[in-house]
Each structure stands twice: as structure tokens, then as C-alpha cells.
């Protein structure tokens, strides 16, 4: 991509923007992509993070872009964490989560000092650093909130807070319709995050986050107009602040294979991906199902068994990204299963972490089973895949509504209950339910074909959105123009 294509008229007005990611993989990945988009537009970019988190993206930003990373030492000893455990991921033991938050709190004065020293024109802050809005105000610069979530999910939360329709139903499984949204979306109380059902510490944090959003200059989303246009307008109107969709961010900046493989992951050995690639390259176009549940999830053994049986009896070829629990019975079941599907060449298991962007763009992939993590939903738009939706935690159930009811490119597996990311919950989806949903998505019949066509149309729209004149490209130019205007007003030349 020719950098000059992105250069904004006035070189004397170079913007300086600081990005402050949260310490979890799925928040770091898109905000770093976004920082790279700003850098492409000739913005002077600094990302502030801790040592281990910087290692997750350092090589991708070192290739070809002028972005600085300011690395801070995480106070592991002070909070009683082993060195290097400072990222929320599927490997974070539940008792360590509060310690990561405590470490972040210790780092706050250092970050505030950095904001002052760096003399930036704007702070783009992850939603989970709500205090940055006050710091930005003291410095007289705009703060933009980054949500690693869909616009629809923010509108849904706002609707529930305003109208409290979920408190008016008789029981947790009774359906209600979200009030005032552009589409008629039905949910149950069981599908809402626990903090919305019963106030807890997280509810207090979310209140502070929401207050900080209202005081911000605006919000940036990894989305695009053709995907969530109705909700962008709704957000602006109801939440009362500006918002800019700048996605799909992954497609905008990750062009070569190394970018795609290293995104959010330390590559340990060269050629780590070759096995799956060789396997996939032998498969027919659109014939393989990709099954993955993001960076945070771990399933209990009985759920893994159900998934394994469903995949095998569905008859479709599959790649399954799976995490072990080190439970003895499960280990032997999974080992036998892996041996069997390897032998029949029907399935390929990737343990732990997969180069998702690379896999998804392989022509053999025809559909996916997804937990509806927002990054994954948007990444599936890059390539136009229909999906089996299997929401688990965070805002996944809202995202499922977008995929299934609004965009009509997904089939629900039928999960009924929200659970915490680091708990198993009590719900086990049966092999029959899983197999049935897979059948619809992978089948060549009318329903599957319709979803595939709509997904392809969205993929085409996504590609246009980030090109010159496209919706996200225009949003980016408009945001930079507004930030430059603010800078000019602050420092008359
Ligand atoms: N991801 C990946 N390989 C994996 C698991 C996840 O590359 O094995 C990436 C995926 O492409 C996405 C992010 O990690 O960008 C996961 O974010 P998402 O919002 O989908 O889910 P979460 O991790 O928050 O549950």
C-alpha cells in the first residue's frame, strides 16, 4: 500500500496519538491494528503497554510502520504474580485475574505521567481504562474510547439500562424484546451478563466505563457501516456521542502471512502452521468447517466430548482449535479422537492457538462454529463465511442477535445461558444440537446457500469499506480532520 495515498494535506499539522490497550489478547489485537491504521495515515503513534503484552505485537509493528511502543515493567512481584503473567487469556487462572487488575492500578501514575510527557493530541483508550477520560480533560486533549465490541451490543446495553425491560419478565427464561432498537430483537434474562441481572463489582466498573464513554470525545469501533450502519446512527443519537467505525481493522493492515500468523501470538517455531496448511490445501473449496472459541474459552470435558461426536458424525471435514483441561479421562478420549480423525483425514486438531486469519482465508473453509467474539465475527466478514453461533460470555449473546436475526448469516447452536469467561457454567450443548446447526450452515440447500450469499455480499462490502472512498476510510479521514481541527484550536499557529 502506498503510504502517500493516505497522507493528509497539511504536513505541519502532524497529529500525535497515544493508544492504551487493555491487557487481554482480544482487546490488544484490534486496538493495535487500529494504531497501525492511524500510523498509515501519517499520524505519530505511541502504544503504551507492559513487557509481555508488547511482545504480542512488537514484530508486526516493527515491519514497515513508524510506531513507538512505550514498554512498562508490570509490577508482578508487588501483586504476587509470576513474571510474565500479565495478560488475560485462557491460561489465566481465575485467582490471578484480580492481581492483574491490581498491577494495572499500580501502573496508573506512571501512565498518567507518560501522557503528560508525550504531549499527545489525543488518547485512544480501551474501555477498561475509564480514568483516562479525566486525565485527557486535565491535559485539554480529546479522549476516544475503544470498545472491543459491536456497536449493536453497546446499543443493547444502553437500551436495557434505560428501559429495564429484563426486570419486567416473570422468570429468567421468559423472552422480552429490547426496546427502541432498529430491529426487533428478543432475548431472555439468562442470556444477559450476570452484572446486568444482579449488580456486582463488575456492574460498578461498567457504570464507570459508561460514564467515561459519555464524557469522551467519541468512540471507535472495529466495525463498518454496511455491517452495523443502523446501530451507528442509533449509538450517536441515543448515547449522545460521536462514533467512528474503522473496520475491518484486521483486513486493513494485515497483508502478509507473517502479519497474520504473529497477530496476538508469540511464534515459537518456524513453520508452526505447515501441518494444517498442507492438510487444508488438499480439501475441496468450501468443504471444511472451522471451529474455534476465541482466546479466553476453555470447555469442560463433557462438552469437548459432545463437540467431538458432533463433528465426527456430521460427516464434514473440520479444523478444531481446542484447549485441554489436563483431565485424565478427557486426555485419552481426545487422543483417540485425534488419532481417528487423522487416520480418516476428516479432521485436524490445533491445540491451543491457531493462526485464525490465515486459516479463515483458505479457500477450503466453507463455514465456522464461533463463540461470537466480536473480532472473530468481523474476521469472518473479511472472508464471507456463514456461522454456527455459540455465544458464551461477554457481549456474545448480543453479537449472536446481529449475526442471526439482523444479518441472517448464522444458525444458533441453542446456548441458553451466559457464563463467566473463566468458569465452565452448567450448560452442555448436546451433540445432536451441534450437528443439526452444522448441517444447516454447511449444507448446499436453500437456507445454507442464502446465508452464504449474504455473507459473501458483506465480505465484498467489507473490502470496499477500507478502500479510498469507502465508509471506514471516509470515517478515518473525518476523524483525523476533526482531531486536527481541535489541535489547531488548542495551539493557534
Ligand atoms: N485468535 C487467533 N487464534 C486462536 C484464537 C483466537 O488468532 O487460536 C484471535 C482471533 O483471530 C481474534 C481474537 O484472537 O482476533 C479473539 O477475539 P474474539 O473477540 O473473537 O474472542 P475472545 O478472545 O475475546 O473470546
Describe this entry's structure for a reader.
The chain is an alpha/beta fold and 493 residues long. It has two domains: 11-168 and 200-247 and 466-490, Rossmann fold (3-Layer(aba) Sandwich), CATH 3.40.50.2000; 265-462, 3-Layer(aba) Sandwich (Rossmann fold). The chain is 48% helix and 14% strand. Strand 6 (175-177) and strand 7 (186-188) form a beta hairpin. It is globular and about 65 Å long. The structure holds uridine-5'-diphosphate (UDP). Uridine-5'-diphosphate is lined by residues 25-26, 29, 264, 292, 294-296, 321, 353-354, 356-357, 373-376, 379.
Search tags:
493 residues; alpha/beta; Rossmann fold; seven-stranded parallel beta sheet; 14% strand; binds uridine-5'-diphosphate
CATH hierarchy class name of the largest domain: Alpha Beta
Q: What characterizes the major β-sheet? A: 7 strands, parallel
How many individual β-strands? Answer: 15
How does the overall form come out from the CA principal axes? Answer: globular
Structural class: alpha/beta
Helix content: 40-55%
Total of domains: 2
Residue fraction in strands = 5-15%
Looking at this structure, what is the CATH superfamily of the largest domain? Glycogen Phosphorylase B
Q: What's the pLDDT, averaged over the residues?
A: 93
Total number of helices: 21
Ligands and ions found: uridine-5'-diphosphate
**Between the first and last Cα atoms, what is the distance in angstroms?**
32 Å
**Cα-based radius of gyration, to the nearest Å:** 22 Å
Reported by name, the CATH topology of the largest domain is Rossmann fold
Instruction: Return residue spans where pLDDT drops below 50 for at least 5 consecutive residues.
Output: 1-8
Report the CATH architecture of the largest domain. 3-Layer(aba) Sandwich
As laid out across the biggest beta sheet, the strand order is 3-2-1-4-5-8-9
Amino acid at each position: 500500500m502506498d503510504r502517500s495515498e493516505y497522507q493528509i494535506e497539511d504536513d505541519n499539522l502532524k497529529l500525535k496519538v497515544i493508544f492504551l490497550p487493555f491487557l487481554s489478547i482480544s482487546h490488544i489485537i484490534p486496538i493495535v491494528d487500529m494504531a497501525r491504521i492511524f500510523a498509515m495515515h501519517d499520524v505519530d503513534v505511541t502504544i503504551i503497554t507492559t513487557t509481555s503484552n508488547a511482545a504480542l505485537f512488537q514484530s508486526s509493528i516493527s515491519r514497515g510502520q513508524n510506531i513507538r511502543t512505550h514498554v512498562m515493567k508490570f509490577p508482578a512481584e508487588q501483586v504476587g504474580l509470576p513474571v510474565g503473567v500479565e495478560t488475560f487469556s485462557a491460561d489465566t487462572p481465575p485467582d490471578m485475574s484480580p492481581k492483574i487488575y491490581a498491577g494495572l492500578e499500580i501502573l496508573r501514575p506512571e501512565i498518567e505521567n507518560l501522557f503528560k510527557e508525550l504531549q499527545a493530541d489525543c488518547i485512544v483508550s480501551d474501555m477498561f481504562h475509564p480514568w483516562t477520560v479525566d486525565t485527557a480533560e486535565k491535559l485539554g486533549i480529546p479522549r476516544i474510547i475503544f470498545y472491543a465490541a459491536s456497536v449493536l451490543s453497546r446499543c443493547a446495553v444502553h437500551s436495557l439500562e434505560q428501559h429495564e425491560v429484563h426486570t419486567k419478565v416473570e422468570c429468567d427464561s421468559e423472552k422480552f424484546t429490547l426496546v427502541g432498537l432498529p430491529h426487533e430483537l428478543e432475548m431472555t434474562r439468562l442470556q444477559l451478563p450476570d452484572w446486568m441481572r444482579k449488580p456486582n463489582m463488575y456492574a460498578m466498573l461498567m457504570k464507570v466505563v459508561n460514564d467515561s464513554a459519555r464524557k469522551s470525545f467519541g468512540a471507535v469501533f472495529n466495525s463498518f457501516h454496511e455491517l452495523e450502519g443502523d446501530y451507528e446512527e442509533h449509538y450517536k443519537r441515543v448515547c449522545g456521542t460521536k462514533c467512528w467505525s474503522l473496520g475491518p481493522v484486521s483486513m486493513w493492515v494485515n497483508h502478509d502471512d507473517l502479519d497474520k500468523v504473529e497477530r496476538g501470538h508469540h511464534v515459537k517455531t518456524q513453520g508452526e502452521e505447515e501441518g494444517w496448511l498442507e492438510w487444508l490445501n488438499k480439501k475441496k473449496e468450501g468443504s471444511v468447517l472451522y471451529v474455534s472459541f476465541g482466546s479466553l474459552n476453555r470447555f469442560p470435558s463433557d462438552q469437548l466430548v459432545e463437540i467431538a461426536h458432533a463433528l465426527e458424525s456430521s460427516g464434514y471435514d473440520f479444523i478444531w482449535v481446542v484447549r485441554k483441561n489436563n483431565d485424565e479421562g478427557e486426555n485419552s478420549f481426545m487422543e483417540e479422537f485425534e488419532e481417528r480423525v487423522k487416520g480418516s483425514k476428516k479432521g485436524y486438531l490445533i491445540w491451543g492457538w491457531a493462526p485464525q486469519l490465515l486459516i479463515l482465508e483458505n479457500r477450503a473453509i466453507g463455514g465456522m462454529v464461533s463463540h461470537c467474539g466480536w473480532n472473530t465475527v468481523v474476521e469472518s466478514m473479511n472472508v464471507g463465511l456463514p456461522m454456527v453461533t455459540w455465544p458464551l460470555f461477554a457481549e456474545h449473546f448480543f453479537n449472536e442477535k446481529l449475526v442471526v436475526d439482523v444479518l441472517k448469516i448464522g444458525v444458533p447452536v441453542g446456548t441458553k445461558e451466559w457464563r463467566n469467561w473463566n468458569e465452565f457454567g452448567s450448560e452442555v450443548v448436546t451433540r445432536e444440537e451441534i450437528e443439526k446447526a452444522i448441517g444447516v450452515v454447511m449444507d448446499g440447500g436453500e437456507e445454507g446457500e442464502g446465508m452464504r450469499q449474504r455473507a459473501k455480499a458483506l465480505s465484498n462490502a467489507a473490502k470496499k469499506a477500507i478502500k479510498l472512498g469507502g465508509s471506514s476510510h471516509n470515517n478515518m479521514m473525518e476523524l483525523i480532520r476533526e482531531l486536527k481541527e481541535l489541535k489547531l484550536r488548542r495551539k493557534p499557529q
